[in-house]
Design goal:
The structure is a homodimer of 386-residue chains. Chain A has 11 helices and 14 strands. Chain A has 386 residues and is α/β, with parallel strands linked by helices. The longest helix of chain A is centred in the last third of the chain and has 22 residues. At the A-B interface, α3, α5, α6, α7 and α8 of A face α3, α5, α6, α7 and α8 of B.
Chain lengths: 386, 386
């Protein structure tokens, strides 16, 4: 039997790494008060860091993402969530870049979060975990970057909540990054955005299994609430057009059989989405991370653009034509603010039928845009080296 | 103390009426099979029927509406849900028209529904209530019309699910009505429409208090699920624009205080919407009535327009520019189908910032359109009388 042909566009087998970035001697002081004495971060890396340590691309994940952005973990045939973007020859080309992707603070895939054990009490934090802020994500990302010995990132890249982290980072510490890619993101959620997230959280918190956040000790879990939250949110991640194209009014089985069970194909799809989500995500992380998005409003800070106006990293912002969760007005607002501060910003509205989730899709014009932007960043670095 | 000045634009004090329309000797045979041996209908009327019985306007309510469309019931200062449209001098002018508005079959405000007691068992129907179809609503409406001694309605008027009833009625029994007003409705839900309704129903049915639909006997109630369903649906009834204008990112209290409680004003609003909804609506009715909408697809029936093409009642269809639940394409589809059958159809796209709920709002251009259409209907009737 011939050996399987390795996929030359995949980063191949990857393994998560783990690092303790904050300790009682060096605690994480949080933006909204409080501190964490123990913070571990799980991350993956792809490609090789140059001896000059000047080819690092930092990936910030979205609300329900994790550190596994590309390649395959041992024993799994599920590629990383941004595998179509990251790999040899791909837009984030791992033959050129050293790519870092951590699980977020407050997440549930290895990095310290509300589902972690509080070393001070020996019990799961639950709602005792401190309220997070976009700035805290950046603080932890910077600590990881420092741990890897990198002074300046060639780029920071993220979509949705990931893009919001990129924006926060670029505004607060623009000297850390030469280039920033902000995809399908927002600098300020609308009332409708907040409303959808609020209902998702209500579904979780009103689930009797939530137990005031102490479901781990109770041995229960708010599966119902998290399922409802996911199904609802999932609709908002897609477009009406995409749902119509994929499912229309098609029956799931031989024909429609009116009743209250799953009958339309789109219903079966939502059930499936909820089920796979329960296996990989935690209700407390959903609360904490989604709430950070609600409060994010960086341009409301006095002097918000003072630092970035000095350093002026290159920024690429993209939105997608059918994204109604964060439509083009969200991207255009942050573009206008950055532009007003003299930052060189490229904005692209990418035609796509896939709604907000477009940022995860291999859309040629989108991928070409990111590739060109990062390659230009590489070329500029070459110039700097000389 | 002077007596309060009566409001000359209100129909004033109204009282619900009750009639048993179907009995074991004259059961209601349902479109999808099964029958109901006992059907009571609660309705209200406003204005006076002419001796010729030719000035009746029938109002069909939406998913969460009821028979109380106008005026005030004894002891309440809450006007009917369409009080801005119906009354002396209003578009549905009760000095000219005799207006009838029943609670829907399957509803929970007096008309027989899944929360009623099944006379055969002495227990609440729950999920033993038969699956309903749009045609069943029309059957019951026609029985009520006959009970009132009316052969032909001057008009049938409805918004959203109400408009879908109007369409069904006009297609199946076009000779019953001279004019039809179909507002913010659809002849076929999209996958996205079905998806939102499916999630709402899941929230209800997964609530432990639902007890497989037997919550009445169990003494529980799926308040959590119904609240989540309502909050989510309510977002879809409004527009992002309306939510931004009304709430923006305003705090509910003195300032934002990050946490998981109600903090943004829009969150407080959603909570309030859920609370008042629990007081007036029933989870089983929500399931039954919303599911009728999912399956409604009248133009898919062979010969769907054969009857209406013969009779050709006048049809007015309206949509609202910011309605994203049933956007203009929904109205335009049914308009095109009716137009193709030779039916005289007037279509108006009404500018409004209020989303789907616009059909409940006193928008001048909308009200003027309905007024003109009904007045023309009156004028035509005058011509017929001569």
């Amino acid at each position: 039997m011939p050996a399987p042909v390795p996929d030359p566009t995949s980063v191949g087998l990857v393994a998560p790494q783990n690092v303790r970035l904050f300790t009682p001697d060096h605690p994480l002081t949080l933006a909204r008060g409080g501190r964490l004495d123990h913070v571990e971060v799980v991350y993956e890396t792809y490609g090789r860091l140059t001896p000059e340590k000047d080819n690092a691309v930092f990936i910030c994940h979205a609300l329900t993402g994790d550190a596994h952005a590309a390649g395959f973990r041992e024993g799994s045939d599920k590629p990383g969530w941004w595998d179509n973007l990251i790999g040899p020859g791909k837009p984030v080309d791992t033959t050129k870049f050293f790519v870092i992707c951590p699980n977020l603070l407050g997440g549930c895939q290895g990095t310290t979060g509300p589902g972690s054990v509080n070393p001070a009490t020996g019990a799961v934090y639950g709602l005792d975990f401190p309220i997070l802020d976009m700035a805290d994500f950046v603080t932890v990302h910077r600590a990881l970057t420092a741990h890897l010995g990198i002074d300046r990132l060639l780029a920071v890249v993220g979509g949705s909540l990931g893009g919001m982290q990129v924006l926060e980072w670029a505004l607060r510490f623009p000297a850390d990054l030469a280039n920033a890619v902000i995809v399908a993101a927002s600098s300020r959620l609308t009332a409708e955005n907040i409303a959808f997230s609020a209902v998702a959280r209500e579904a979780i918190m009103r689930d009797p299994g939530f137990r005031g956040g102490h479901y781990a000790e109770a041995g229960t879990s708010p599966d119902m609430g998290l399922s409802i939250a996911r199904m609802m949110a999932h609709i908002t991640y897609l477009s009406g057009e995409a749902l119509s194209a994929k499912f229309g009014r098609e029956p799931q089985f031989d024909g429609l059989a009116p009743g209250f069970g799953v009958d339309f194909a789109v219903e079966s799809y939502l059930h499936h989405q909820a089920e796979v989500f329960l296996d990989r995500f935690d209700a407390l992380s959903y609360l904490y991370l989604s709430r950070v998005m609600d409060y994010f409003d960086p341009f409301a800070r006095p002097g918000a653009t003072a630092a970035i106006a000095e350093v002026r990293p290159n920024v690429l912002a993209c939105s997608f034509t059918t994204d109604w969760r964060f439509d083009a007005t969200h991207s255009l607002r942050l573009v206008a603010r950055l532009h007003g501060a003299g930052v060189p910003v490229t904005y692209r509205s990418i035609p796509s039928s896939q709604g907000h989730d477009s940022f995860l899709m291999p859309i040629p014009r989108y991928h070409d845009t990111i590739r060109a932007f990062l390659d230009r960043g590489l070329a500029v670095r070459e110039g700097e080296r000389r």
